[in-house]
């Protein structure tokens, strides 16, 4: 179970890191003009950059605390934060009737909830 949780956290961290970095480095107009980033046209540029920063911090929080054994309780807290972020993303996609991105987000949400459940419960770092 511990290995599955590490893999799930790693996959989720990779997704959050790549998505966050993309939001941070891509100009707002270019993102809004792309097919996968049309939603950004409805969101302020600063908000897109803030979402990117939150995603990068979430990715860091899923891995580093446990890896460095410094406040490993932050891993499930980061997973809960990622789940909340993904719920917001899913709501945005569903409002825009974007079913494929909403379904992908639902899968990542399941991974985040699995990590949160596993690290708060049976495979806690504090137990």
From TrEMBL:
Its main location: membrane. InterPro entries: DoxX. GO terms for cellular component: membrane. It comes from the Bacteria. The keyword Glycosyltransferase does not apply. It holds the Pfam family DoxX_2. Keywords: Membrane, Transmembrane, Transmembrane helix. It is found in: Membrane. The chain crosses the membrane at residues 6-25, 46-67, 73-92, 99-120. It is a multi-pass membrane protein. This is Putative membrane protein YphA (DoxX/SURF4 family). It comes from Phytomonospora endophytica.
């Amino acid at each position: 179970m511990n290995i599955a949780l590490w893999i799930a956290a790693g996959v989720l961290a990779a997704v959050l890191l790549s998505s966050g970095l993309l939001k941070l480095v891509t100009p707002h107009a270019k993102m809004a003009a792309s097919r996968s980033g049309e939603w950004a046209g409805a969101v302020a540029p600063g908000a897109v950059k803030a979402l990117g920063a939150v995603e990068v911090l979430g990715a860091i929080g899923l891995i580093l605390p446990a890896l460095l054994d410094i406040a490993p309780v932050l891993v499930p807290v980061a997973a809960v934060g990622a789940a909340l972020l993904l719920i917001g993303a899913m709501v945005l996609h569903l409002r825009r009737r974007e079913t494929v991105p909403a379904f992908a987000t639902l899968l990542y949400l399941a991974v985040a909830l699995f990590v949160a459940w596993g690290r708060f419960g049976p495979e806690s770092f504090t137990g």
